[in-house]
Prior knowledge:
It is a single chain. By secondary structure, this protein is of the alpha/beta class. It has helices spanning 6-10, 19-24, 56-64; strands at residues 2-5, 16-17, 35-38, 48-50, 53-54, 68-70. The chain has a 3-stranded parallel β-sheet with strand order 1-3-5. The protein has a 3-stranded parallel β-sheet with strand order 2-4-6. The two termini are 15 Å apart.
Amino acid sequence: xxxxxxxxxxxxxxxxxxxxxxxxxxxxxxxxxxxxxxxxxxxxxxxxxxxxxxxxxxxxxxxxxxxxxxx
Length: 71
């Protein structure tokens, strides 16, 4: 599985973050099947994270920024 951090998902222009959006924005390789969001960096906007594994620390940071997580 590929790890992405909060700074990387925050850099996206869209509000919904999923495997397709990460591949389309060249954040993860096209062959990635599983992605885990880790708590590294910070997030300041409300994002909806769908279908990705999320560490507990990253989940808390996403929720604190007003976002949501659907695994």
